[in-house]
Please model this.
Amino acid sequence: MRLKRDAIRVSLVIDLPDEADFEASCWLKETLHDVCRDFEGLVILNLKTVTTLGSHCIGTMITFSGHAGPRKVEIRIVCPDGNVRRQIEHSRLDQILPVYDTLDEALSAPRSVISNSTRIPVVRSVSRTT
Model:
């Protein structure tokens, strides 16, 4: 898990580990929370080397797609074709966040206009404590 910042393009690349499991989702959640609070620009989640994508990571990405807009952060995913890409399509994450085959494609695609009205609403779950 690594962060790489490109000041020229105002972008931040987050490399996820080969196994994007529950532990990785916790790290990703904390990282995206900090990024959405302190950063303005393009955030790319690089899944190029990911072989296993857990549902917790998918859930974290969906959750932060709703948090990114008001903070002027655009999140994109890099994921070549394969099993992980099929998981993304099956979960419909590709309908919430744009998915690109390569990092160059994700960096060079035109920026979208982000506003609260164009973001897909995220349903938040509330856990009960007894």
The radius of gyration is 14 Å. Strands lie at 2-6, 11-15, 19-20, 41-46, 52-53, 73-78, 99-100.
